[in-house]
Design goal:
It is a single chain. This protein has 371 residues and is α/β, with parallel strands linked by helices. The chain folds into two domains: 263 residues, TIM Barrel (Alpha-Beta Barrel), CATH 3.20.20; 82 residues, no CATH class. The protein is 40% helix and 19% strand. The chain is built from 15 helices and 16 strands. The strands form four sheets. It has an eight-stranded parallel β-sheet with strand order 4-14-13-12-11-10-6-5. A three-stranded antiparallel β-sheet has the order 1-2-3.
Length: 371
């Protein structure tokens, strides 16, 4: 059982605290993705120093390697990866979706081949709950099926209803204990009637929190925001709402404005490894030749090590020399940028200035600007 407090609201945006057995999570919160027990190119203590209070781990990848039972033998994922703070694990459904040629879906679950070895595995709601229990995840996600968009109404409806049946089986298999919780996942694609139906079924089952799944899978920001204009309102007011796999800074701020409390995405870490930095002015590509003689920091408004101790010229050199340090510094910067953005939103919500913050952000920040 998890306890969630809402401290303040402005419009649909909320400021809250989620209490778990491994510490509190202040919301709105962004979760860096530690797919296989690590945020790539970062030490756990460096991730914590950015302000991150919760990480995401991945059921599918961890069940394949090193195996949930092996992680449990080390005392769970917190001890295994030296992250004493809260952990959320996704159920594996999204990864299974991407294995189109290697999977078979039935009412019982999904049989699939490992992308690593070709070995066959079976993942069901019950097995997903068992794996996440062995990982000692603070927030377990119900096992679901995620359809890639665009998709016709009939296909999305069939998938959503199967996910709701799996949600009930997930709830029945979940081992409830203090400071741990289970989130249900709303599906329904971009169809309002299916989103509402999904939400009603999940609320009937009853969960500690509710995720909005099946977005950021090809529908575009405008369509995603259309769904978020109504989807969170179908979910209980007193429970945390988690938008899965999102996203760019403008996606995140727009989602918070529409009532979302938690988000995760590989974008800041993946972009850092490829030379892209999120800054207060927009996206910067450190590989561009215009940076090779620059004595400026990545972002004058940022206080991370990459910005306070190194120049754009040096970072440009690291990437062109193929040095690992470049990926480490830009990943740290990007996670720091995201966490600082969440802190700015929390402060604005506490002070009742979120509308002004959102307006200023939209005017100043451009996701697509690359320099």
């Amino acid at each position: 059982m998890l306890k969630y407090e809402i401290l303040s609201k402005q419009g649909k945006a909320r400021r809250g605290i989620l209490h778990t057995a491994h510490g509190d999570v202040n919301t709105p919160a962004f979760m860096p993705v530690g797919t296989v027990g690590t945020v790539k190119a970062m030490k756990p203590e460096t991730v914590a120093a950015t302000g991150a209070e919760i990480l995401l781990g991945n059921t599918y990848h961890l069940m394949l390697r090193p195996g949930a039972e092996r992680v449990a033998a080390f005392g769970g994922l917190h001890k295994f990866m030296n992250w004493p703070k809260p952990i959320l694990t996704d159920s594996g459904g999204f990864q299974v979706m991407s294995l189109a040629g290697l999977r078979k879906i039935t009412e019982e679950g999904v049989t699939f081949q490992s992308h690593l070895s070709g070995e066959k595995f079976f993942l069901s709601p019950e097995r997903s709950m068992e794996i996440q229990y062995l990982l000692d995840s603070n927030i377990t996600m119900a096992f679901d099926e995620c359809v890639k968009l665009p998709a016709p109404h009939k296909k999305v409806a069939e998938s959503m209803r199967r996910s709701m049946r799996w949600a009930k089986r997930s709830k029945d298999a979940f081992k409830d204990r203090e400071g741990y919780g289970l989130f249900g996942i709303m599906q329904g694609g971009v169809f309002q009637d299916l989103r509402e139906e999904s939400a009603k079924e999940l609320v009937k089952i009853g969960f500690d929190g509710y995720a909005i799944g099946g977005l950021a899978v090809g529908e575009g920001q405008e369509k995603m925001f259309e769904v978020l204009d109504y989807a969170p309102t179908y979910l209980p007011e007193d429970k945390p709402r988690y938008l899965m796999g999102v996203g760019r800074p403008s996606d995140i701020v727009g989602a918070v404005a529409r009532g979302v409390d938690m988000m995760d995405c590989v974008m800041p870490s993946r972009s850092g490894r490829t030379g892209q930095a999120f800054t207060s002015e927009g996206v910067l590509n450190i590989r561009n030749a215009c940076h090779q003689d620059s004595h400026e920091p990545l972002d004058k408004e940022c206080t991370c090590d990459a910005c306070t101790k190194y120049t754009r010229g040096y970072l440009h050199h690291l990437f062109h020399a193929g040095e690992i340090l470049g990926s480490m510094l830009l990943t740290e910067h990007n996670i720091h940028f995201y966490e600082n953005l969440m802190q700015q939103m929390r402060t604005a919500l506490e002070q009742g200035t979120f509308d002004q913050f959102y307006s200023n952000f939209k005017e100043k920040y451009k996701d697509e600007r690359k320099f």
